[in-house]
Structure formats: C-alpha cells, structure tokens
C-alpha cells in the first residue's frame, strides 16, 4: 500500500484554496485550544483577513457547510480539513541531502501536524552518513532504493546543492518515488506522472528585494 496522500479528492480544487487550507487549519486549532466550539465564516474571515464569501467557498470543498447564525463546529471543521488535505494519515518521507537545510527539516517536529514524517535521510558525504538526526538515521544514498521499497516510501524531499538536484530527482524517480518536494533553487524536470513541487525562499526574497528597490529607491 502506498503511503502518500490521496489526490483523487482534491482534483478540481483551485490552487489558492488549497494554499489557504493550512492557514484555516492552524487558525482553527488555535481557536479550539482556547475552548471555542463554534465559529462563523465572517469571524474566520475577519481574523484571517480574508473575504467571507471566499472562506465559505473554500470550506465548502471539505464537504462541511456552516449553519446559519451558528457557523461551523470547530472540531468537525478541523477533522474535515485534515481529511480533505489527506493529513490524518502520516506520509513517510525520505530526504536526500542531510546538510544544513536537510537536517533542519528532518528535525522539524511541526511536519507531523501536516501529515508528513521524515523517516530517513540520505547523503553521499562520509562525514554526514551514519549520523543520527533526532532519531532519524542518515544513510548513504546507495541504500535509498532498497529502503524505499521495503518501507513503501514514495515521497522524497531534495535538499542537495542545485548542481546535484536533477541527478538526485532522476534517481528518485527510477527508484519508485512518485512525489518530489524540491528545495534546491533549480528547475528540475520529471516525467508527467510524478508530482513535483518547488519551494524557494529565494523566489520570495527576490520579490521583496525587487519591490523594495522599485517602491522605496
Ligand atoms: P549543505 O551544503 O549544507 O547540504 C547539502 C548536502 O547535500 C550535503 O550534506 C551534501 O553532502 C549533500 N549532497 C551533495 N550532493 C549530493 C548527492 N548527489 N546525493 C546526496 N547528497 C548530496 O547545503 P544547504 O545549506 O543545506 O542547502 C541545501 C539546498 O537547499 C541547496 O540547494 C540550497 O540552495 C537549498 N536551500 C533552499 C532553501 C529554500 O527555501 N528552498 C533555503 C535554503 C537552502
């Protein structure tokens, strides 16, 4: 059985809606912790600086509709969002590149709340291989294929230098990985059936610096 989020459910959902879901979830968990049981869309919208109609539309994708004048049951909504995001079940993930960023991601406890757990890291540097990162072992990359098969891992994170990222992605794909989250600042290519997501703080930084320069200089 593959331990990756079920994508069938979220086909056809606008990407901005998907991107807002973690914000709703984090907000609702904080609200729940204060003992609030019910909340309305306008209240959520006001707290998160969103449009109330947008909030209602977004949350409707989870299959939950708010009641007039009462709103949503907070607990029910949290569960519905978690189901919708496919994070009620933990997806086990491998990470390649156990340097500064890779080690930080491995050690980051917060991923569990969003449905992933890094269960092994891989590297080629003998000084890094064999390390233990808060209980997560760093193996030589040679071990990736066998471990991925044995542990049914189909989700891989890339945190190697950009010059090595394409090669690592190609290997991951040939070893059965179906989803890649690439942190290296390079535009890697994968076959159409592979899920690929790039994340870059540099891209956001470029926007900030460009806006600073154009607006205030
Ligand atoms: P680092 O040098 O500390 O770590 C890179 C690790 O990758 C090293 O341990 C190295 O041995 C390993 N490595 C190199 N080639 C490899 C290969 N072929 N197979 C397996 N392992 C290999 O670098 P870092 O600071 O952790 O950055 C890692 C990557 O993340 C870089 O591409 C960097 O630009 C990027 N980065 C991205 C973001 C972001 O927001 N996406 C933020 C910071 C860094």
Primary descriptors:
217 residues, alpha/beta, seven-stranded mixed beta sheet, two-stranded antiparallel ribbon, 8 helices, 43% helix, globular, disordered N terminus, binds nicotinamide-adenine-dinucleotide
Mean pLDDT across all residues, rounded? Answer: 93
- Compute the separation of the termini in Å: 56 Å
Q: What spatial order of strands do you see in the largest sheet?
A: 5-6-4-3-7-8-9
Count of discrete alpha- or pi-helical segments spanning 4 or more residues = 8
What's the multimeric state?
single chain
Q: Cofactors and ligands present?
A: nicotinamide-adenine-dinucleotide
Instruction: Report on the biggest sheet.
Output: 7 strands, mixed
Radius of gyration: 20 Å
**Total beta strands:** 9
Shape field: globular
Helix content: 40-55%
Q: Any low-confidence stretches, pLDDT <50, length ≥5?
A: 1-9
What is the structural class? Answer: alpha/beta
Give the DSSP E fraction (strand runs of 2 or more residues): 15-25%
Instruction: Give the SSE string.
Output: HEHHEHEHEEEHEHEEH
Can you put this structure into words, describing what you see?
There is one protein chain. The chain is α/β, with parallel strands linked by helices and 217 residues long. The chain starts with 14 loop residues before the first helix and ends with a helix. The strands form 2 sheets. It has a 7-stranded mixed β-sheet. It is built from 8 helices and 9 strands. Bound molecules: nicotinamide-adenine-dinucleotide. Nicotinamide-adenine-dinucleotide binds next to helix 5, strand 4 and helix 7.
């Amino acid at each position: 059985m593959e331990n990756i989020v079920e994508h069938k459910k979220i086909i056809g959902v606008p990407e901005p809606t998907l991107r807002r879901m973690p914000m709703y979830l984090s907000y609702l968990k904080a609200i729940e912790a204060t003992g609030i049981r019910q909340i309305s869309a306008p209240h959520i919208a006001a707290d998160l600086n969103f449009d109330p109609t947008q909030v209602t539309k977004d949350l409707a994708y989870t299959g939950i509709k708010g009641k007039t004048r009462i709103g949503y049951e907070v607990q029910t909504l949290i569960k519905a969002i978690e189901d919708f995001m496919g994070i009620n079940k933990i997806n086990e993930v491998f990470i390649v590149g156990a340097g500064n960023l890779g080690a930080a991601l491995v050690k980051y406890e917060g991923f569990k709340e969003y449905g992933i757990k890094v269960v092994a890291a891989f590297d080629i540097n003998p000084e890094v291989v064999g390390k233990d990162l808060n209980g997560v072992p760093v193996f030589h990359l040679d071990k990736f294929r066998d471990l991925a098969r044995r542990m049914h891992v189909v989700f891989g994170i890339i945190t190697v230098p950009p010059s090595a990222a394409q090669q690592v992605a190609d290997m991951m794909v040939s070893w059965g990985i179906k989803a890649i989250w690439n942190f290296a600042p390079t535009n890697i290519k994968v076959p159409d059936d592979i899920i690929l997501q790039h994340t870059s703080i540099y891209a956001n930084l470029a926007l900030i610096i460009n806006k600073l320069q154009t607006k205030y200089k």
